């Protein structure tokens, strides 16, 4: 626990000033986190990170991360993200032929899905920062409140397991405790942010965001359980890897945009 706290404090001290500053440093930070998360996912699958598929997977996530302002210029020339995604899909399939199926179709599919899941999640983090710093903090604090509420309520009164086949420590009481904690945080933010939506919709949306964050956590737990690993990586001592720390964000930030709270 001591190591976990120390790592958390150091990470926050490095992360939050860059989020506050925004601009290019923030975009570069998000690109770095995305690359690390993609490589962690590939490692779980057993795909060498220093390889052509590894390079293409990271590059694909970078394409998906392109801010709307830059991607818009490409679209004027007739090359949007969907066209570029198709190019990468074809490259992976060509590689299955070149390697005589040593690099399999399943591995090609993983090399497409992992960057999609991670890249788009972080893309919406960049878009949220463009909308305003307080929206980023809203999403982060909703996620952190959900995690903390689920942990403490689950430890205090949680008995019935939520999904033991995926994550044996999560409980039903913790699930609802996480949602309640997120709603409390949202009430505080209602006095700080001028949401375009009404207060009732913001609170309902917050409950959905809290659920999404917990599903994001479970989705990554399912991935780790499938590949029989404890953590996605070791970059953050006491916390695991980047994917372990951002799995909820990858669900929360896109949903924040879909709910049109910005």
UniProtKB/TrEMBL annotation:
<dbReference type="Pfam" id="PF01148">
    <property type="entry name" value="CTP_transf_1"/>
</dbReference>
<keyword id="KW-0808">Transferase</keyword>
<keyword id="KW-0443">Lipid metabolism</keyword>
<feature type="transmembrane region" description="Helical">
    <location>
        <begin position="199"/>
        <end position="219"/>
    </location>
</feature>
<feature type="transmembrane region" description="Helical">
    <location>
        <begin position="108"/>
        <end position="126"/>
    </location>
</feature>
<dbReference type="GO" id="GO:0004605">
    <property type="term" value="F:phosphatidate cytidylyltransferase activity"/>
</dbReference>
<keyword id="KW-0548">Nucleotidyltransferase</keyword>
<feature type="transmembrane region" description="Helical">
    <location>
        <begin position="78"/>
        <end position="96"/>
    </location>
</feature>
<comment type="similarity">
    <text>Belongs to the CDS family.</text>
</comment>
<dbReference type="GO" id="GO:0005886">
    <property type="term" value="C:plasma membrane"/>
</dbReference>
<keyword id="KW-1208">Phospholipid metabolism</keyword>
<comment type="pathway">
    <text>Lipid metabolism.</text>
</comment>
<protein>
    <recommendedName>
        <fullName>Phosphatidate cytidylyltransferase</fullName>
        <ecNumber>2.7.7.41</ecNumber>
    </recommendedName>
</protein>
<feature type="transmembrane region" description="Helical">
    <location>
        <begin position="6"/>
        <end position="31"/>
    </location>
</feature>
<feature type="transmembrane region" description="Helical">
    <location>
        <begin position="52"/>
        <end position="72"/>
    </location>
</feature>
<feature type="transmembrane region" description="Helical">
    <location>
        <begin position="173"/>
        <end position="193"/>
    </location>
</feature>
<dbReference type="GO" id="GO:0016024">
    <property type="term" value="P:CDP-diacylglycerol biosynthetic process"/>
</dbReference>
<keyword id="KW-0444">Lipid biosynthesis</keyword>
<keyword id="KW-1133">Transmembrane helix</keyword>
<keyword id="KW-1003">Cell membrane</keyword>
<keyword id="KW-0472">Membrane</keyword>
<comment type="pathway">
    <text>Phospholipid metabolism; CDP-diacylglycerol biosynthesis; CDP-diacylglycerol from sn-glycerol 3-phosphate: step 3/3.</text>
</comment>
<feature type="transmembrane region" description="Helical">
    <location>
        <begin position="132"/>
        <end position="153"/>
    </location>
</feature>
<keyword id="KW-0594">Phospholipid biosynthesis</keyword>
<keyword id="KW-0812">Transmembrane</keyword>
<dbReference type="InterPro" id="IPR000374">
    <property type="entry name" value="PC_trans"/>
</dbReference>
């Amino acid at each position: 626990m001591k190591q976990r706290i120390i790592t958390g404090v150091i990470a926050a001290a490095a992360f939050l000033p860059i989020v506050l500053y925004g601009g290019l440093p923030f975009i570069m930070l998000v690109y770095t986190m995305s690359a690390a998360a993609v490589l962690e996912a590939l490692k779980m699958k057993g795909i060498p990170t220093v390889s052509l598929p590894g390079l293409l997977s990271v590059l694909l996530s970078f394409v998906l991360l392109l801010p709307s302002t830059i991607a818009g210029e490409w679209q004027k020339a007739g090359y949007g993200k969907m066209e570029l995604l198709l190019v990468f899909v074809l490259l992976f399939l060509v590689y299955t032929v070149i390697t005589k199926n040593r690099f399999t179709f399943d591995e090609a599919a993983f090399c497409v899905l992992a960057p999609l899941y991670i890249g788009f999640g972080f893309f919406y983090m960049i878009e949220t920062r463009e909308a305003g710093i307080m929206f980023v903090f809203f999403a982060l604090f909703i996620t952190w409140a959900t995690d903390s509420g689920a942990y403490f309520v689950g430890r205090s009164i949680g008995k019935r397991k939520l999904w033991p086949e995926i994550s044996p420590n999560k409980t039903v009481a913790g699930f609802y405790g996480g949602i309640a904690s997120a709603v409390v945080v949202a009430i505080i933010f209602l006095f700080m942010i001028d949401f375009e939506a009404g207060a009732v919709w913001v609170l309902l949306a917050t409950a959905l965001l809290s659920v999404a964050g917990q599903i994001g956590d479970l989705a990554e737990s399912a991935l780790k359980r499938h590949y029989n690993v404890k953590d996605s990586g070791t970059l953050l001592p006491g916390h695991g890897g980047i994917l372990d720390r951002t799995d909820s964000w990858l669900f929360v930030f896109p949903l924040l945009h879909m709910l049109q709270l910005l």
